[in-house]
Amino acid sequence: MLLHYIHRRSFSSTNQVASFARWYRGLWQPKLANEPPYDHVTQIGDPILRQKADLVPPEAVTSPEVRLLVKLIVDVMRKYDCVGLAAPQIGISLRILVMEFKEKLRDEFTSIEYKNKEMETLPLTVFINPELKVTNFEKKVFPEACQSVRGYSGEVSRYSEILLRGLDENGVSKELTLKGWNARIAQHEMDHLNGIIYTDIMNRQTFACTCWQAVNAHRGRVRIGFHKK
Q1: What pTM value is reported for the model?
Q2: Catalytic residue among 100, 144, 169, 189
Q3: Domain 2-217, architecture per CATH
Q4: Which residues of 118-151 are buried (b: 16+ CB within 10 A; e: fewer)?
């Protein structure tokens, strides 16, 4: 079972790969509603968000199990309208992240904001066992939010340009240079793989509820949802 794998936290031996395969077959069998992988995003306080995620072993990278896991991460990212998501955020402590910045997001920002934050489209991008290298040590500060700290934001300083190296969903080595907002997304998701949440590195004085004005306008009758159908 996957829970057994998560508690063991190591996934390098043949027996553990077989254990993961048994979990995969079990996806078509009844399971507890609270058993990962989740179709919601884990929230701050969940111990899995504080673990350093394990490497996906080379022999498992192109397995049906990992392919399905990648698909699940992408599905949840899109379900919650995220621009990035890491495997621990659906309850799986493996070093996998996905990113996607769609063209339609341009309409959610003013042209000035889009330019100042150096935003640009990013097609669906998958990295397995990614490594990050800073290529421009200039830092910029912008408000940042996270689906694992739903309903809040805070200002975070991030490097302007980075290089990601790793494997894609087909097990092919690749590298990608990212700058501006997409570099921020990558750094945010890499933090998740290392047990770091943006609240650890933000300017704490800027931490704010993103709907505080609505709370006042509706006399406190505002709900923050943690699940989408």
Answers
A1: 0.86
A2: 189
A3: Alpha-Beta Complex (3.90)
A4: bbeebeebbbbbbebeeeeeeebebebbbbbbbb
pLDDT, one tens digit per residue, over 138-153 is: 999 999 999 999 999 9
Cβ atoms of 167 and 96 within 8 Å: the answer is no
Report the pLDDT averaged over residues 170-194. 98
Sketch the domain layout of the chain as residue ranges.
2-217
The sign of the CA dihedral 129, 59, 62, 37 is negative
105: amino acid identity, one letter? L
Catalytic residue flag (residue 189): yes
pLDDT tens string 15-52? 555 555 555 556 555 555 678 999 999 999 999 999 99
How confident is the model over 197-208, as pLDDT tens digits?
999 999 999 999
Instruction: Report the distance separating Cα 122 and Cα 103, nearest Å.
Output: 8
